[in-house]
Amino acid sequence: MKILFDQGTPAPLREFLPKHEVLTAFELGWSTLKNGELLAAAESEGFEVFVTTDTNLGYQQNLANRKIAIIVLKTTSWPRIKLSAAKIVNAIDHALDNQFLEIDIPYTN
Predict the structure, then answer these.
(1) Which tens digit of pLDDT belongs to each residue from 34-67?
(2) In terms of C-beta density within 10 A (0-12 exposed, 13-18 middle, 19 or more buried), how is residue 85 classed?
């Protein structure tokens, strides 16, 4: 599965996704693209899942016609995300086209 990490998504999360191809917006030179442009670029390049920490994305964008699955992590804290990595990987592994999923990341597991 081809996965795109947005700017705020901690890159070390990719270590928990070894069976997937994971790239970041920064690596692709897409850092300056706004959300709508970024999602369009991701879809045109064949990405299947977009992982972001932008909790406003669902309110800012019309996601109805998107093919890409969008997973929103409700924190940018790498220590907290790392503790919830299994939950995040499970969500990515089972992501469906046009799915929008917000994942709560607890302060402790």
Answers:
(1) 878 999 999 999 999 999 999 877 666 667 788 8
(2) middle
Residue 25 lies in a domain: yes
Q: Is residue 108 part of a domain?
A: no
Answer whether residue 109 is part of any domain.
Answer: no
50 strand-pairing partners: 4, 70
Could you list the residue range(s) of the whole structural domain that residue 12 is in? Answer: 2-103
Question: How far, in Å, CA of 100 to CA of 72, rounded?
Answer: 8
- Whether pTM > 0.85 for this model: the answer is yes
What residues have CB less than 8 Å from 82, skipping those under 6 apart?
Answer: 12, 13
Structural domain total, the chain: 1
Backbone dihedral angles phi then psi of residue 55, each to the nearest 5 degrees: -70, -10
